[in-house]
Amino acid sequence: MSENRTEIASLGEFGLIEQLTKNIELQNASSILGVGDDAAVIDHFGKQTVITTDLLLEGIHFDLMYTPLKHLGYKSVVVNLSDIYAMNAEPTQITLSIGISNRFSVEALNEFYEGVYAACEKYGVDLIGGDTSASQKGFVISVTAIGEVAPDKFVKRSTAQKGDLICVSGNLGGAFLGLTLMEREKRIYLENPQLQPDLENESYIVGRLLKPEARKDMIAFFAENEIVPTSMMDISDGLSSEVLHLCKQSGLGCRIYEEKLPVADEARKAAFKFGLDPTVCALNGGEDYELIFTLKQEDYDRITLNEEISVVGYMTDAHEGSKLLSRGGNSFDLTAQGWQAFHV
Amino acid sequence: MSENRTEIASLGEFGLIEQLTKNIELQNASSILGVGDDAAVIDHFGKQTVITTDLLLEGIHFDLMYTPLKHLGYKSVVVNLSDIYAMNAEPTQITLSIGISNRFSVEALNEFYEGVYAACEKYGVDLIGGDTSASQKGFVISVTAIGEVAPDKFVKRSTAQKGDLICVSGNLGGAFLGLTLMEREKRIYLENPQLQPDLENESYIVGRLLKPEARKDMIAFFAENEIVPTSMMDISDGLSSEVLHLCKQSGLGCRIYEEKLPVADEARKAAFKFGLDPTVCALNGGEDYELIFTLKQEDYDRITLNEEISVVGYMTDAHEGSKLLSRGGNSFDLTAQGWQAFHV
After folding, report:
1. Mutation site for B-interface testing, chosen from A21, A44, A51, A339 by largest number of B Cβ within 10 Å
2. Residue A197 above 90 pLDDT?
3. Does B199 touch chain A if contact means CB atoms closer than 8 Å?
4. With 0-12 CB in 10 A as exposed, 13-18 as middle and 19+ as buried, what is B276?
5. Which residue segments constitute the domains of chain B, with CATH numbers given?
């Protein structure tokens, strides 16, 4: 954080909003009216509008002890854009609401917004509205992302077909290993504040956790190669959980091959260091924000040259269940290990 | 609250979402795809899309000690729809994100959603998406409302002209007086839990606080009578604060007449009972969710028969300032007393 500290109270709500939004330049022709009125106005010129929203709460989704505010701003945008791409759509606008306690300074908020604007610029989306509120405790972030898609060209979760290939972009498990590392370093620091965190050689997994990217490139690749996935979603809760969604909503089962799961070397090394099974990290670790999608088998040739895509299995009839086939040749039921926050 | 208590953990995230959203029936043809995928899809068929979002945080925006959850759900939707109407647009969809601690039961959440669905039904909007999360402390509610408007027919805050009439729908100050009453009863209860709250004859102001409505009827009236306000916004922070926004954004000043301020008899009586000035309540009390709008003087004849509209003043040049003319003939500068939450 910067050394100056300006109290939020010294600006007031409207001064604060002005301060945080004064440099916005709308990039999209569809952004008719942005921040500063009761609502924003967009015009998608004959396209359909895609909307998604995510809530990020301090202590549940992020820990400010090891999350730089700029990264948090960036990630808050990216996780929403990921949902728009997962519809095979292009994000165009976001709204951002925040609730902040007075332990935050204006400088700290500026850092958060720097990250928000960096993500907006990288992905070509406009910040067009939001709400700024005090909070009693904890930093509250709510982002809504808006996108566009040619009429009826969006891709749902429920339309996979038996025999379709199950594909994954990028690598899995890295964000979970980054979280494991940061939580370990936090514990060590709390026990002994003199010890410096040991993050050497771990920039890959730390980056996967703190600064994820959304797979804009995949949507562009599909468009260039005239590929339309039969179903798609993004991987926020872990591959197991997501593939079970595709199965349930499409009324199908699946086979996933352990040996095909994409895990980066850095993540594999980190897993061994922490005594974790890389396969479990890839299946159940969340927050990778990769895409999982299904393709007709005849589209296989179109993706073989793209090193960012791994075919990890195929869809089956529902009665065949949803199974992982291990390297050793055994078959396990896939289970969703995702969201356990209510048990904490 | 109902007597049964089902723990949220017993359903899990997806079970909970299914439970809360299973009865949704989409009402609008523009709602192409609703809850259950990465994002929702809407098609406004050649109209422009209007978007607004509001965050409601426990302890800042509402107190669960005197706010029934069903009313809270209703109000969470209504305050967002009010922003859409304030653009002269029709709301069509909402997304709803909530963060809840495990002190909430599934039954309590069902009550909240009953209110949400009641508002959706009354105003003809579809709930098409959202996010459900645990929170460490406090109930977090984030609603985004989406609406539609014929191309370039939306009404901004910045387009009032000198000489335009300043109009207000309904009555002002009631919600603030309801809040004053509830805070007083809460204090009495906390000091002496045996005493029953004294809400007799106060249903008007309590209703204004706990169950506000958005002025859908005004937008319909404008359309029927071919009236286009020159500027408009909704009154959430108090008339003074809002009229100053219109002045600032339109580069103008204003004259407001104290004797023209619409205050309901019930609110006036409550103000005297509490030793408050009804004019101050009307100017600085927030949360009435009425509309303030400006009209060309030649449109005056079109509104005289509508008893729900009061002309409270007119726009002037900026150098004439923004003034209240009192019953006694004195002139006071209008000041925004709105949002002081960061000083708490």
Report:
1. A51
2. no
3. no
4. middle
5. 8-149 (3.30.1330.10), 165-338 (3.90.650.10)
